[in-house]
Amino acid sequence: MKPRLARFVPKPMKSLHLCLATLALVSTASLRAETEQKAKPDVPPSVLRTYDKNKDGALDEKERAKWQADLAKRRDKYQQERAAMLERYDANKDGKLSADEAAAAKIEMNIARTEQDMVKGKEKAQERMAREAADKELQERLAAAKAAEEKAASEKEAGKKPAEGGSMMMME
To answer: Who contacts 101 (Cβ-Cβ below 8 Å, separation ≥6)?
Structure first.
């Protein structure tokens, strides 16, 4: 008969297996985290597409400096635009836009954007009309040249001398 205490004492092989399994699990998780960290570049893919000139998958010192300089320019531009908006729309000069001030700013900016869109639309319409007029003029010239060639060919068949300038039209 086995003593009762022996049932609760783990067997040495079971303990060894349990320790090895735990060690394998921890090392695998650690290795996976390390691999994922290495796989993730420290810059977004869009930045790599723009700034990685030698296409090695990483930014060297020169490329990173260009990226940082461009970021600084964009931040400065944003801050200037924000300051200009506050100057223009902050009616009570408290340094921030209240809900009413923001609503008024939004309305004014939408009106300005609509006016800009109308001007652009008008310009595009004028450009389209100019292209259509030029196309029509070209088609008319081609039709006149073709008619002159056909007339010259029919006169030649009839035995007449072609009229001066016949198919030799000057094109501008």
So the answer is: 89, 90, 91, 92
User: Does 168 have pLDDT greater than 60?
Assistant: no
- In this predicted structure, the answer to whether residue 136 has a pLDDT above a threshold of 90 is yes
> Does residue 76 have a pLDDT over 90?
yes
* pLDDT for 133: 94
Give the integer Cα–Cα distance in Å for 42 and 63. 13
3-class DSSP state of 163: coil
Average pLDDT (118-136) is: 93
Q: Is residue 153 part of a domain?
A: no
Model pTM score: 0.41
Question: Exposed, middle or buried: residue 105 (CB in 10 Å: 0-12, 13-18, 19+)?
Answer: middle
114 shares a domain with 78: no
Residues in the chain: 172
**Domain total for the chain?**
3
Structural domain for 30, as ranges: 9-40
Q: How many whole angstroms separate alpha carbon 57 and alpha carbon 42?
A: 11
Contact 41, 57 (CB under 8 A): yes
